[in-house]
Design the sequence.
């Protein structure tokens, strides 16, 4: 059974800092990995999706990397802003059958 | 806005009530999903529908009954729920294949008394 772990559970940083969020998964036979953002009381917004054959994806100040063999992914946020405050969720999909397993998330607070 | 809407946004019900959650997507997608998000737990996949056919039932108790009348609408019928079923219920959609991003609705916050 796939298990997804996210470390740290919570993170507080001053505005402007670069930061890294970590995600690890137990079964490396994944189809893809996705990072989401969730604001309090709201649904999820997809940030980046990395296919199993890819090593990284970039969107603006966000960069996600994937090391499938070691079961790890990182989400790098450059020059953090207060608007980045949210919970960041990592999710892996197995076998292309839309069976997605989520981590519990990292709650990020960026202090002005 | 993601193009996925959910109603109601908040619902309080007793254990003997019957209620339904509704999800609608305006994206032309062919796959729709129900997820449960409980406090301090990972998001749990409940059901997956592809082209109106259920392709995944993740060992969900029968007191949750999904319905997908067409590719744009998804319902979750609730009856005789338990207090531990209180959670945020999220609907999502995707074009259909496993390589696609899922687009999430805002969720329904359900409280079972």
Sequence:
């Amino acid at each position: 059974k796939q298990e997804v772990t996210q470390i740290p559970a919570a993170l507080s940083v001053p505005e402007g800092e670069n930061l890294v969020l970590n995600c690890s998964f137990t079964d490396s036979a994944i189809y893809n990995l996705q990072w989401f953002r969730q604001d309090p009381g709201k649904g999820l917004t997809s940030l980046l999706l990395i296919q199993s054959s890819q090593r990284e994806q970039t969107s603006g100040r966000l960069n996600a990397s994937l090391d499938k063999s070691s079961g790890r992914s990182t989400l790098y946020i450059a020059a953090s802003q207060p608007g980045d405050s949210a919970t960041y969720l990592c999710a892996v999909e197995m076998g292309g059958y839309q069976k997605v397993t989520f981590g519990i998330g990292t709650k990020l607070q960026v202090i002005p | 806005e993601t193009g996925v809407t959910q109603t109601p946004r908040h619902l309080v019900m007793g254990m003997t009530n019957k209620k339904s959650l509704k999800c609608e997507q305006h994206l032309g997608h062919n796959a729709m999903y129900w997820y449960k998000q409980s406090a301090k737990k990972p998001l749990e996949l409940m059901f997956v529908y592809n082209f109106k056919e259920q392709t995944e039932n993740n060992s969900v108790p029968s007191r949750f009954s999904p319905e997908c009348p067409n590719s744009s609408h998804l319902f979750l019928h609730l009856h005789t729920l338990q207090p531990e079923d209180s959670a945020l219920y999220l609907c999502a959609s995707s074009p259909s294949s496993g390589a696609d991003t899922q687009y999430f609705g805002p969720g329904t916050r359900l409280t079972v008394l």
In short: The mean pLDDT of chain A is 93. The interface with chain B takes residues 4, 31-32, 34, 36, 41-46, 49, 51, 89, 91, 93, 95-105 of chain A (CB under 8 Å). The longest strand of chain A covers residues 30-38.
